[in-house]
Description:
Layout: H1 2-63, E1 81-87, H2 97-114, E2 118-124, H3 126-134, E3 141-143, H4 152-167, E4 173-183, E5 186-195, H5 221-294
Parallel strand pairs: 1-2, 1-4, 2-3
Antiparallel strand pairs: 4-5
Helix pairs in contact: 1-5, 4-5
Amino acid sequence: MANLKDIKRKISSVKGTQKTTRAMKLVSSAKLKRAEEVAKRSKVYASKLTELLNEIAQKMTQNNENGIDNVFFKENKNPKVVDIVFVSADKGLCGGFNYQTIKRTSKLLREFEEAGATVRLSGIGKKGIAYYKYNKIDMINEIEDMSSSPEYSRAAEFISTLVEDYIQGKTDKIILIHNGYVNMITQEIIEQQLLPIDTKSLDLSSVSLSELEVEPDDDDTLMDALVRKYVDYSMYYALLNSLAGEHSARMQAMDAATKNAGEMVNRLTVAYNKARQEAITTELIEIISGMESLK
């Protein structure tokens, strides 16, 4: 009977876990709807901002045979110092969501170091920061509570220190990595070069349709302001996109955990019934044997 008690206790424990994972799935589903809406609205603004930057950059290129003479567009083919910024989650229980971000960041880190460049790592999110601290990899900038509650002002403040280092020549490139939201069941690792702006990757399909006129600007005031806005908002949008991806990954993970718990309950129930039948059979045999011995 002790075996029956153990199985019954396990069934009760797994059912309790199943209730927790089902509740977490529902919570993540509700949070995902809100995060998805915010990310979609922000994506519209980010896309328009990128289109404007693309068009101005193209028209400035057309006006200058040597390309754009601006610090934000000067590509260094052999960077000596590279800034890598990663966005991870503050919480776990979301499958391989954080692992994929860490994996891509570590891969990029090795590639630049093997090429002889010095890599400065900046991190957002407890899980990623904890991983690199555990592996004794230094970070120049870290913040743990921003990925779970993104704010534009904090995102802009965080990335602005790296932008200033880039302007002063302390770093040659800034790369942003995050695990972005695609749909309810899919996330995608996004690796974005924030600075310098890569003119080769610009989408110029809409340039000819616009009546925008760009006048020469000796001090690059317009371009500087626009690029800073672009970088700030790219950082903010990465946080929003990552948060939506985190909730979708957690919803998937909790759904899988709930199903696994249900399967385990079924297996334990079968084992419980089998053990109970064996116990009853044993008792019946003992009773019959006792009655036979009395004859």
